[in-house]
Amino acid sequence: MRIASFADHPLGPTEKISCANKMFYLNQYHLVDLYVVLPVIYSVICAVGLTGNTAVIYVILKAPKMKTVTNMFILNLAIADDLFTLVLPISIAEHLLHYWPFGEVLCKIILSIDHYNIFSSIYFLTVMSVDRYLVVVSTVRSKRMPYRTYRAAKIVSLCVWLLVILIVVPFTVFAEVYISPDDERKSCVLSFPSPEGSWFKATRIYTLILGFAIPVSTICILYTMMLYKLRNMRLNTNAKALDKAKKKVTVMVFIVLAVCLFCWTPFHLSTIVALTTDLKSTPLVIGISYFITSLSYANSCLNPFLYAFLDDSFRKAFKKMLECRTA
Question: Which Pfam families does UniProt cross-reference here (predicted)?
Fold first, then answer.
């Protein structure tokens, strides 16, 4: 339902469009193959995402040794991704049916969750980056962090959930079922007051600033400062480098962040292009729009594999859980 776009047409980067509009563009530009390919791609993302994120949630909740501050943030990130992949089948159904059959209440819920996914991943990664920075600073200064507790991580996570809910409220308010006057086809869309074009541009800027510019700038500043402090620590002091465990966690957070930016940066860059250029809706542009959207969806299923490859404790805990289940 979320479609990235370089061009100024209904396939906007932050507003939702109807399946009727999707099929109009597919038929107009002879991209009917996408009608088959997209549900397959979305189904794979849904299956892999649900399986992987549910496994992450299960391991962190059940394994006592996994209850750390970083894992609390990973848990909430997995819950957010799981919630999104859980409702993805509804988007697949809408795509295949060519109309919205689920009513207005579910329309508001689905659009809210879809937009929630845009903000939640980057905000939890921002919090994880802040946490990594504080850990590095405390290690460089050889100081303890009594306030960095599992309980404090729970409170911070709750605040992130509430903040993102607040950010998504405007999309929830404007979400509604639209009935086409031509064929009475129902669509789940964002319906803005007049002038609609200005409102659509406002939502693009709103999402770009709050969902990308501010959190990514914060993360870049934090990691730049973190690398600077680590460099000075090696050059100017006799202090030991970060211990092996802390370095591994920091590397894992950095790689998860890099993958997130890889998946989401094209989506947000399409907003900049849409706001600053007047590209026409060609088959190539439409195809790229769907590719970018699929890439942003894919981020919801990649993180569990990163944890499995990068975190020994996660692998061991998951293996132990499997052994207990099969015993």
Answer: 7tm_1
